[in-house]
Amino acid sequence: MTSPSRPRVYIVGGGFAGLAAAKALAASAVEVTVVDRRNHHVFQPLLYQVATAALAPSDIASPIRTVLRRHKNTQVALAEITGVDLAQHRLIVPDGHVIYDYLILAAGATHAYFGHDDWAPIAPGLKSLEDATALRRRILLAFESAEYEGDEEARRAALTFGIVGGGPTGVELAGAIKEIAGQTIPRDYRHIDTRTTRVILFEAGERLLPPFAPAVGARAQRDLERMGVEVRLNSAVTGIRPDGIHIASQFIPMRNVFWAAGVQASSLGRSLGVPLDRAGRVIVGPDLTVPGHPEVFVVGDMAAARSADSGKPVPGVAQGGIQMGRYAGETIAGDVRGQSRAVRQPFVYRDRGSMAVIGKAKAVAQLGRWHFGGFPAWLLWGGIHIISLVGYRNRMLVSLNWLWNWLLNSRDARLIAGDARLDIQEPRSAEFIVADPPARFMLTADMKRVVEEQRLGFVATVCPDGTPNLSPKGTTAVWDDNHLIFANIRSPGTMANLRRNPHVEVNVVDPFLRKGYRFKGVASVLESGTPYERALDFYKARGSRANAIREIVMVRVESAHAIDSPAYDFGLTDDQVRARWEEHFASLRAGKTVANTATSDGQ
Ligand SMILES: Cc1cc2nc3c(=O)[nH]c(=O)nc-3n(C[C@H](O)[C@H](O)[C@H](O)COP(=O)(O)OP(=O)(O)OC[C@H]3O[C@@H](n4cnc5c(N)ncnc54)[C@H](O)[C@@H]3O)c2cc1C
Predict the structure, then answer these.
(1) Ligand 1 centroid to 313 CA: how many Å?
(2) What atom in ligand 1 is closest to the CA of residue 302?
(3) Which of 56, 355, 483, 555 has the least CB density, counted as fewest CB within 10 Å?
(4) Does residue 126 line the site of ligand 1, with CB under 6 A?
(5) Nearest CA to 140 among 155, 159, 126, 153?
(6) Which of 294, 329, 342, 269 is nearest to 10 (CA)?
(7) Is 169 close to ligand 1, i.e. is its CB under 6 Å away?
């Protein structure tokens, strides 16, 4: 138990910095009290995995008492500290105060909405386990709402996610949401195609991952875009409403906005009455103490500190917190051993590298001047995070969960906790819910036959809405339920546009009937290798070289109508049309390959 003759060290915060400080003091002749308003330590780098249902909250959290139970000189208090009285050495708690000999402030940071606190309830951020489970609920409820939403525009808004902030958290969230929608849950829903979910990542700056080298940000952007995430750079959000987001004069309807744009230090720093930086962090000296108070250390995300060797600011990352916390603990231990305060070594930050995950088996890593991406970066990221997790139980559970998710593409923590009311504007009728999606009924039998008879050679162009650069090249389509599926659309410009803007028009022209059909839909660009065997088999059967199929574009048909355009008039009389049909059917019956008279897809 405590001995009043030993110096009393109070550590506020059981995060990375606070725990590192407590551990550094474990063998010292001091009485340590770790005070936290929560009873658990949270491994924040994996919060986004809880928010996206890959891990359960308990997998990334550990009770602070358990973490420190072997430290005989340490006790843990569950309390919220409301202020510090530097002059009197007092730590203020709601019902009184305690006296410290040494104080280590490690209370972390919270979200910053840059003066728009009214955005907080609409665009929640990710900092605690409560935030993560709230985000998880919102993500999962969005799909539930879309499943029963009868109004098309509202359905699209429910299936549109905006993430504000292109730093590591924004990048990781965007990739994970796209992965859930595209790979984990499509087969769980009957009336929506979750693969058509739009995920838009807004970044005010000119590149993603600003703390990393430009090449790393570019790599992350490329990988995200390949997954179908729309990345909007130089896009400062100017307004957020429950029904959408404003980027300058543009309004994008969406029901789900998540905030990953800014942080500000714990308000505890303000109670010190000492200089703070713009993010509310306490400006500390070379030994991480408050000027004039060598007994008060501020560490982790609360501190504006510089590394003594380089003079560079210490980044607000876990390693920064751990190294500062350890330094503060060791410095106090040195004081207690009788070392002079006048000869304290200044704090030096050792950069151990930075990483961010993009998706399954995709990450980017920067170790000093060396950077790389893809699977090796992902493996390294996974290894380091497993090692860094607190407790053997969590390390084992997270490893097993990741293996399971990796093998089965699953995210089993998809529980909607709390209020599960759906946000629906116009419910679908019960009749509809038991029947098929409406797109099927909007397509006439004639239109569907047009697509099914693709062997006759239809010209199809796929163009993102509003973009004038129609691909002049035709391609053939295969029909699958409510989707038109194209392989290898030839124009790279069209592919790039499709990734940015998935709302498309598809023109299918039947040269024999002299009719054109225009389908409006939402396109997903899928890499080859995704489970679209039917489409791949179709193209292979048609003589396409399988390895030449690099991308498959799937268009979910939302509406369709005949095009009345002279551009599609092939100048044939009715008799000629009939004769051509007869000729083609005869060729098909005879098993001949039919010349593709009207396309230029060249597959
Ligand atoms: C979503 C997310 C992802 C991240 N990803 C990465 C990553 O991949 N890599 C990386 O290196 N860093 C990452 N970080 C940053 C990293 O987690 C932080 O830099 C680190 O947690 C800072 O440690 P800390 O000890 O200063 O604060 P925290 O870990 O935030 O701990 C602060 C503690 O103080 C307690 N507290 C706060 N106020 C009070 C009070 N008034 N009274 C009592 N207790 C209080 C809190 O409950 C908390 O336990 C991420 C952060 C977030 C939010």
Answers:
(1) 18
(2) 26
(3) 56
(4) yes
(5) 159
(6) 329
(7) yes
Q: Is 354 in the pocket of ligand 1 (CB under 6 A)?
A: no
Residue range(s) defining the domain that contains residue 550: 445-589
* Cα 250 from Cα 285, distance rounded (Å): 45
Q: Which residue in the list 172, 295, 505, 558 is annotated as catalytic?
A: 172
- C-alpha distances out from residue 441 to 184, 186, 510, Å: 28, 21, 20
Structure confidence by residue, pLDDT tens digits, 166-182: 999 999 999 999 999 98
Q: Residue 301: which CATH number? A: 3.50.50.60
Query: How confident is the prediction for the chain on average, in pLDDT?
Result: 81
Residue nearest to atom 6 of ligand 1 (CA): 45
Q: Let me know if 172 is a catalytic residue.
A: yes
Please tell me whether residues 269 and 256 are part of one structural domain: no
* Contact of 527 with 551, CB cutoff 8 Å: yes
Please work out whether the CB of residue 413 comes within 6 Å of at least one atom of ligand 1. no
**Does residue 418 lie within any of the structural domains?**
no
Place of tokens 């973009």: 467
What distance in Å separates the CA atoms of residue 125 and residue 581, rounded to the nearest whole number?
60
pTM assigned to the model: 0.74
Q: Amino acid identity, residue 76?
A: V
**pLDDT average, residue stretch 103-119:** 95
Question: Residue 300 Cα, ligand 1 centroid: separation in angstroms?
Answer: 8
Which atom of ligand 1 is the closest one to the Cα of 317?
19
